[in-house]
Each structure stands twice: as structure tokens, then as C-alpha cells.
Amino acid sequence: MHTEAIDPPGITWLRVSPRYITVRLAGWALGNLIAVAVLSLPLVFVLAGSWTWPPLWLAVAVPVAMLLLALWRLVLIPRQVRSIGYAEREDDLLIRRGIFFQRTLVVPYGRMQYVDIGAGPVERGLGLCTVKLHTASAGTTAGIPGLPAAEGARLREQLSVRGEARLAGL
Length: 170
What we know:
Blueprint: E1 14-15, H1 20-48, H2 56-83, E2 85-88, E3 92-97, E4 103-108, E5 112-118, H3 121-126, E6 128-135, E7 141-148, H4 149-168
Helix pairs in contact: 1-2
């Protein structure tokens, strides 16, 4: 179900690259590999018979719970990536994301101070980048991850030109 506040009528959302799913999965897997290894150590000691605590059921339950959470993330990450979108309007840029807790951010061109583009090693390998928008408000930074490098460069230039034009009009 969509509401007008989250999904204004007449907006055509541009989506990020599906290759961004790989970036998110790689980052998630790296972080969780260490956690699963550490949380599985008690199970190794219990099965070897050299440690009596935690009880076997707890030593098995923690890795099983981690596995179930991992499967949930494998389903959730692609849906999260598909929910990211942006739309260029005449006076502002709309950025949306979220499945359960949806969010639409409106960034007026006249409030943009600078546009930053970056890419980590996995993003670079897949030809992707992240465009970050820094506004006049210190607490507001918006970003669009998972853009193809050419689209990121085009968007950076387009937003810079529009931001300068709006600032010149003040």
C-alpha cells in the first residue's frame, strides 16, 4: 500500500543497479563471518568434551539462530536494494528507500553545498559508485548508493549545475 506522502503521484522513480545487491551481500557476509566464527567456538569446545558450559542446547541454538538470521538477510537485502530510488524534479531531488519503514527525502537544489562521489573496492569492481549530497543543514546528508559509474558522474554534474543555479538566484 502506497501513501502520497511516501510515493507522490506522477513521479517516475529511477532505481539503482541490481549489482548493488552484490555489494551489500559482500559487506554483510564479511561482518557476519567473524560473528558466526566467534559464536560457534563454544560449540566446538562442547563437542570436543573439553568445556561443560554452555550447555549443548545453547551452543547449538546460537549458531542455528545466526543461520536463520542469515537466511532472512539473504531474502531482505535484494528487496532493500530494489526499494532505493531517486527522482529529479525541477526544484529538488527525491530519494526513497525502505521496505517496512519507508522514507522519502527531499533535497532542494538551492540547499546543496557540494556533491561527493565515492566507491569502495567492491563497488569499483562492479562499476558502481555512491553519490552523496551535503546540504546547508549539518544534520542532513543524503546519498544514493549503487549507481552505475557513468550515471553517478552525470548526476553529480547535473546536481552541481542545478545547485549553483539555485544559489545564484538567492
